[in-house]
Amino acid sequence: MFGPSGKERQREALRSQATAFGVEVMSFDELAIGDRSVADEAKQLFRLAAVGEAPTTTTSIDVYWLRAQIGTFLYAQPFQGQDALVGEFHVQLAGGLPQPIAFCRAAFWRKKWTTAEDPDLLRTLEASNELRSATKQLAWSRHTTRGEIDLDWTVQLSGLADGTSQLVVQAGNSPLDLHQSMLGPFLSVGHALAPLLRAEAVEQGRYFEPQYDWLFWAEEQGGSPA
């Protein structure tokens, strides 16, 4: 008798983490992306065996709307077959910062805050012990049965025209837990950033384009769970 699939284990892990952190799962949907055949999967596995890598192709996306103290937020979890790829959390927060920020990979595998060369903002971020503790929980790779996907960034926050800011956190995982969603680290980053935000944000650009921004705003405009 077969056990649960990779997708089901991923979903069970997220539900379990949501319960542990007191997060309400408001809605769930699975979006199919194109058609993938058994032959397509076989070609990917052959390339992985031959050259040590296989390009990632999203075949479906699990879309969650959740609610916690931080607010109502989106979690998009893409899959390639049964393998979970890099997910994204999206949430709007009240207020903003003088510049858009990103926590990204630097030279020699170091991690750094990018602040549009605003030294005062950089000092504010680096002085926050809560933020430092939260970012240490983040994973910088997504490990799958096919290999490893390294992340160039994990956190971005940018101001919107309505006086709020959009926080996006990419979800890697531990090589010891392929079904980890990073829900806890996302909440920790959001709670750490919230006290640093000013009363009102101004519209800002971003350093990296999230993969699932279109999904966040399409759902918002279409009436996401309130």
Shape: globular
Q: Output the number of helix runs.
A: 6
What are the segments in which pLDDT stays under 50 over at least 5 consecutive residues? 36-54, 221-226
Overall pLDDT level: 87
Order of helices and strands: HEHEEEEEEHHEEEEHH
Number of strands: 11
Cα separation of the termini: 41 Å
Labels describing this entry:
9-stranded antiparallel β-sheet; two-stranded antiparallel sheet; 6 helices; disordered C terminus; 226 residues; alpha+beta; 11 strands
Quick summary:
With 226 residues, this protein is α+β, with helices and mostly antiparallel strands.
Detailed description of the structure:
This protein is α+β, with helices and mostly antiparallel strands and 226 residues long. It contains 6 helices and 11 strands. Strand 3 and strand 4 (83-84) form a beta hairpin. The longest helix is centred in the N-terminal third of the chain and has 15 residues, at 6-20. 31% of the residues are buried.
Question: What is the fold's blueprint, element by element?
Answer:
Blueprint: H1 6-20, E1 24-32, H2 38-51, E2 60-68, E3 71-80, E4 83-84, E5 87-94, E6 101-105, E7 111-114, H3 119-127, H4 129-135, E8 141-144, E9 147-150, E10 153-159, E11 164-171, H5 183-193, H6 213-221
Antiparallel strand pairs: 1-2, 2-3, 3-4, 3-5, 5-11, 6-7, 6-10, 8-9, 10-11
